Amino acid sequence: MMTNIIELTSVTKDFGKGRGIFDVSISIKPGMVYGYLGTNGSGKTTTIRNLMGFLKPQQGTVRIKGKDAWKDRTELKYDIGYVAGQFEFPRLRTGTQFLRYYAKYLGITDFTYMERLIELFKLDTSVNLKRMSKGMKQKTALVAAFMGDQEILILDEPTTGLDPLMREVFLKLVREEKAKGKTIFMSSHIFQEIEEVCDVAAIIHKGRVVDTVDVDKIRNPENKWFGITFNTAWDRADFVDRFRFDTVKIVGGRSCEVTIPAMDLMILLQHLKGYLLCEFQEKHTTLETYFKEAIRKGE
User: Fold this and answer.
1) Whole-angstrom Cα distance, residue 79 to residue 185?
2) Which CATH number does the domain 6-218 belong to among 3.40.50.620, 1.20.120.430, 3.40.1400.10, 3.40.50.300?
3) Residue 283 has what pLDDT?
4) Residues of the chain with pLDDT under 70
5) Phi/psi class of residue 19: alpha, beta or left (left: φ > 0; alpha: ψ in -120 to 50)?
6) What Å distances lie between residue 164 and 75, 128, 160, CA to CA?
7) What residue spans define the domains of the chain?
């Protein structure tokens, strides 16, 4: 069994003037949902085009299922469902004609799953491709990517143009595909999407991966952080004196911040008995705040 189903090692594709990707290394295990976060122009699409074998790296290697993504791109395309960040449909009239044409290309003869996806996304495939809205085109591209039931999905900004309800449908579909054991690489600039469905997320900035985070540790942190405001400054001072933890930070006359292991929440609540509180609020670290800090450090 392979250790990593997708592996980029020190990949560089330099377009000049600081554009491209530089020394990018990414390892993805089978069955993982891997998020790729970055601002516009950070290098997300360039990375994906190297994965798909559309670009040849100037340095480094890109391997999928142990094969070279550039040299073996013709063979690998049957193993990968792909949504491009920008796409053009072939000169076919309707969504139905396109999906049937693409199904034939993939060797699909049973259209049951394709029809389920069409129903899931509430897609009218009889509409002329040229007259489709951005959202309809995106849904058509998603159906095409998922209907082949390939073991790898590479998705470049897959929810662009989708309304909030269809985004939820997409995220539910990703969870279903993960449950089947699929490996999914998904770029986005929408933090909530990555935080909800991904196992790991890499952050790319100015063409370089500046950090990689275990997303579950953001969803379920080992430590909890609370902001507490007491009725009086005396109460705050008395609490800080009694609650002798190094993780207490005074932030105002009546306020303090406390960071504790999640398992010690009851201890904190016991210490707060007898004090009159004006505010007790748990403060969450989100993927967005983590991203901003990683970008700041990467500058």
Assistant:
1) 13
2) 3.40.50.300
3) 83
4) 1-2, 244-246, 298-299
5) beta
6) 36, 24, 11
7) 6-218, 222-283
What pLDDT digit, counting tens, does each position of 13-29 carry? Answer: 999 988 999 999 999 99
pLDDT of residue 154: 98
The pLDDT, as a whole number, for residue 36 is 97
Question: Phi then psi for 230, rounded to 5 degrees?
Answer: -90, 165
Indicate the CATH number for domain 222-283. 3.30.70.980
Can you give the pLDDT at residue 185?
Answer: 98
